[in-house]
Amino acid sequence: MFIKSVIYSLKFILIQIVGEFIYFPIWWYTKGLIKAAEWWSDNLSSFEKNLALKIWIRHIFSPMYAERDISGRLISFFVRLVVLILRLVVFILALIIFTALFILYVLALPIIVIMIIYNFM
């Protein structure tokens, strides 16, 4: 009876370990990839909100400090344009970094497998 329990336990543990080992790449490119894409999207959305790009674009023609004359409007426009351009540059850099991290996630598993195979050959 005890031997049967040990055999069933070992069989269950072995199947669990092998099953998880086989399932891991499937998870990596299904549920894990969806989570990585959600992370990418959430971080970009959060970054855009922190930079307030939509607000800067919406108010680019609004005068600053209630200066309604032509010179006040021109100065306000060009100041806001410079700030908007700088914020867009920062956003584009964040987009590049987040996209590179997402691509790294996609390529990490094959690179690791190739490196393991290469080191054991």
Describe the structure.
By secondary structure, the chain is mainly α. The chain is built from four helices and no strands. The protein has one domain. The longest helix has 51 residues.
Task: Give me a quick take on this structure.
With 121 residues, the protein is mainly α. It is built from four helices and no strands. α1 (2-29) packs across α2 (31-51) and α2 runs antiparallel to α4.
Layout of SSEs?
Blueprint: H1 2-29, H2 31-51, H3 53-58, H4 70-120
Helix pairs in contact: 1-2, 2-4
Name some characteristics of this structure.
single chain, about 120 residues, mainly alpha, 4 helices, about 90% helix, elongated
Helix content: over 70%
Number of helices: 4
Counting helices, strands and paired strands, the structural category is mainly alpha
What is the number of beta strands? 0
- What is the CA–CA distance across the termini? 44 Å
CA radius of gyration is 27 Å
Mean pLDDT across all residues, rounded?
Answer: 91
Low-confidence stretches: none
Order of helices and strands: HHHH
CA-based shape: elongated
Largest sheet: none
Proportion of beta-strand residues:
under 5%
Number of domains: 1
